[in-house]
Amino acid sequence: MPVTTLKLPDRLKSRVAKVIARTDQSAHAFMIEAIEKQTALAEQRKLFVADALAAENAMLRSGKGYVAKDVHGYLKAKASGKKASRPKAKAWR
């Protein structure tokens, strides 16, 4: 495995040391876990944006969309365990 050196500002290094002092984790393991989590979040964010752009393009091509009030009502009903009919897409052009 290649070696990577991180130069941490003193304040951050001190904060990390305080956090790991209360765990059974090494500073190395803590930083690996933090980098892994941030990498996963960045990957998820990239997919989320790509999905949103694809949905926007599909909406623009079809000329159909959903009324926000209908979607909110549907989600509220589902969240409270009630049966609800999915809203229908409507032409917005």
Radius of gyration: 23 Å
**Segments where pLDDT lies below 50 for 5+ residues?**
none
Structural category is mainly alpha
The H-and-E topology, N to C, reads as HHEHE
The CA-CA distance between the termini, in Å, is: 56 Å
Structure description:
By secondary structure, the protein is mainly alpha-helical. The chain is built from 3 helices and 2 strands; from the N terminus they run ααβαβ. A two-stranded antiparallel ribbon has the order 1-2.
Brief overview:
With 93 residues, the chain is mainly α. The chain is built from three helices and two strands.
Write the layout of secondary structure elements.
Elements (H helix, E strand, L loop, with lengths): L9 H12 L5 H36 L1 E2 L2 H12 L10 E2 L2
Antiparallel strand pairs: 1-2
Summary keywords:
93 residues; mainly alpha; 2 strands
